[in-house]
Amino acid sequence: MKRIIFVSAMVLCLVSNGIGDEQGVVQKPPFSYVFGKAYYILPETTSDESGYFSLCEGKNGKIYIGTAKYGQNSYLVEFDPVTEKQRIVIDTHKVCGLTATGYAAQAKIHTRNFVAPSGKIYVGSKQGYRRGTNDTAEYPGGYVMVYDPTDDKAHNLGMPYKGLGVIDVAADEVRKLLYVVTCEDEHWMLGDIEGKSYEKMGPMLIDYATTLIDSNGNAHAITADFNLASYNPQTKDVKIRKIVDPEGKSLFIQGSAGIPNWILTPDGKTAYLIRLGNADVFAIDLSFAGETITAQKLCTIIKGENPDSRGALAYGPDGKIYALVKIKNDTGYGTGSLHKLGRYDVKTGKTEELGVIAIKNKDFFDFEKAKKEGKKWIHGYHTLPDGTLTPLHCHMAMIAASDGTLYITILYPFTLLRIDKIAAGR
Q1: This prediction's pTM
Q2: Taking a C-beta distance cutoff of 8 angstroms, is the pair 392, 410 a contact?
């Protein structure tokens, strides 16, 4: 009996530290880990444990996450990094005076939260999915909303386009302008800062398009055919220019794999861009006045099969670019997929693969209890052979906070992952 207990304990030890081969030699994982602390986002704010690109740091140092509650409502949740507490700061239906359910509900805050110099946070709502064959409601259209942390109040800024949701909002408070992208048809809309009127600006945009406002106050978005549309608020005209790589080829990739995610540098002059199904990172000079824009390839930030990066490109206070990319796990160490964090140093041109993101507090969610209760949306993680818990399916957003902490949202259950000060300046 003692021998059996001893052997069992030995096997348990090997499994907990790596894969044991036939000789009992421990195999370490063929990659590094980047551990973060996980927080289960308020469960009453979701229906299917999901949210999208809606993630930002406020000027107050708090983190704001948009959620999706299909058929019911959507919310903006505030997370306080100091107290680690969460609370709802936008109840979309309450702010907009709505009661509709089903497909008519404002079921998602999907916009990348726009933080203006004033500290106000601008977001928008959109439709979710029909909840069964009896859900025949028509979607009325999405709303733009603004939340001001200084007085803890949110306001409805109107519906930019009847029947279409809102996928992006950017505010130019100096010129008192709102730039909005609608969905599922991506119209580029111009509104006043109070949301009293909106008008179409011209070109149709690519799926999930976002507006960047450069240091000169010009607004930029990517068109449906992957060109650059630029709006000059002084002349009130839109100029469209081709975006090409250094060889003169378009960056357009057919289908959802080509959906771009781009971010603006603090000086408001350069955009860094990655596409959903490609791990190449490009730099675009938004101040360039030429007729054709050349996107300079900086790096392939993570190498691997089936790359997938969703709203997960960030510029750190250390002046480096960070990207999270899901790839196929072909290492033989476990199965499924791996979510790898990469870093690119703009000054040196050096690319680093920092490792697979992982959860250091595995008890943040009781998976076994959820399984026993028959909960459906809890399949977003898997355990590697050494016992490490790591995301399996989808990350949805990543930001670098002012202190260099990375925040990442992960689906099923809907999670905020905090990686402390990895991108801090030196």
Answers
A1: 0.94
A2: no
Nearest to 355, CA basis, from 317, 384, 315: 384
Q: Of the candidates 342, 306, 300, 292, which has an alpha carbon nearest to the alpha carbon of residue 321?
A: 342
Contacts of 236 (CB under 8 A, 6+ apart): none
10 Å Cβ neighbour count for 296?
Answer: 12
Contact 218, 191 (CB under 8 A): no
Q: How many CA atoms lie within 13 Å of 348's alpha carbon, on the beta-carbon side?
A: 9
Domain range list for the chain: 33-48+310-426, 54-207
Q: Report d(CA 272, CA 225) in Å as an integer.
A: 19
Nearest by Cα to 291 from 214, 206, 228: 228
Superfamily designation of domain 54-207: YVTN repeat-like/Quinoprotein amine dehydrogenase (2.130.10.10)
**How distant, in Å, are the alpha carbons of 24, 49, 105, 213, 407 from that of 43?**
43, 7, 18, 34, 19
Q: Are 264 and 214 within 8 A, CB to CB? A: yes
| Whether 125 contacts 54, CB under 8 Å | no
Local confidence pLDDT in tens for the 426 residues of the chain: 434 333 334 333 334 344 455 455 547 999 999 999 999 999 999 999 999 999 999 999 999 999 999 999 999 999 999 999 999 999 999 999 999 999 999 999 999 999 999 999 999 999 999 988 999 999 999 999 999 999 999 999 999 999 999 999 999 999 999 999 999 999 999 999 999 999 999 899 999 999 999 999 999 999 999 999 999 999 999 999 999 999 999 999 989 999 999 999 999 999 999 999 999 999 999 999 999 999 999 999 999 999 999 999 999 999 999 999 999 999 999 999 999 999 999 999 999 999 999 999 999 999 999 999 999 999 999 999 999 999 999 999 999 999 999 999 999 999 999 999 999 975
Point out which residues pair with 19 in neighbouring strands: 27
- Residue 12: CB partners within 8 Å, gap ≥ 6? none
Name the residue among 359, 384, 349 with its Cα closest to residue 37: 359
Strand partners, 270: 285
3-state secondary structure labels for all residues of 147-198:
EECCCCEEEECCCCCCCCEEEEEEEECCCCEEEEEEECCCEEEEEECCCCCE
